[in-house]
Design a protein that fits this description.
299 residues, mainly alpha, 15 helices
Length: 299
Amino acid sequence: MSRSFHWQVFVVLAMAIAAVSTASIFIRWALEAAGERGVGFSLMLAASRLSLAALILLPTWRRMQIRQFNRPAWGYALGAGAFLALHFATWITSLAYTSIAASTTLVTTNPIWVSLIAWVWFGEKISRKTTVGIAVAIVGSLLIGLADSSGGGSGSNPLLGNFLALVGSWTVSFYLLLGRESQRRGMNLGSYTAVAYTTAALILLPLPLSFGSSYTGYPASVYWSILLMALLPQLVGHTGINWAVSRISPTTVTLSILFEPLAASLMGYLVFGEVPPLQVIGGGLVLLAGVAVAALGSR
């Protein structure tokens, strides 16, 4: 790969990770403005975020023909959308029960899940150095989660919130790998994101109503938060990550995403005054060390 390509990947990933790091802030804003912490409201945020993103991508559908791509490409894109819906349903709900630091850190433990899935499913090997780096990064993530669960962070039910964040990590791992396979089988980035985001939105749209929540009647700041979530974390962040994962190792991409909890925790401190305990800061340093080692060993 040329040096210019490396820089292009670096710039796109940096912008994408900065964008996705704002998601937890917008979600917490909406939770505070509405004064709700229930599952139904969290599902409303997830469904609204994806629905807006899908609506913005509507022009892509006009240029897309059903027979333009083969069946496997469509199948992987639809599957990615289903896992994306599960990811947001679990992760956004986790922020109602645990701290920003713990939630964003545990949801970004996906390097180990992506590596294991890619190894079992696609037979992709990873170097020994990358394996060590992943292990160190995961230890750092667990230190942050354990510090929060032991009372060092905030949240009404940290154990439940941390578990939901972990489930969110599993589902986003499948989402990334299925998205990569869809693009490898000929579906371009614009078409893939339109299909995946629309599929996720359609799955999530009826769920808030079944939990007794509504799409109307909330303060204006809630809807501003949803709009910002659709524009920055979804369209800029997720689309940039999907672009990168089809061009370089998905393990490398997910390792880069490990910077998200550090950025989100910093913003959580600046906006909401959430001060991570020393255990969380120590876990973050361990996490960064693991990312560095794994990146050096990555292809």
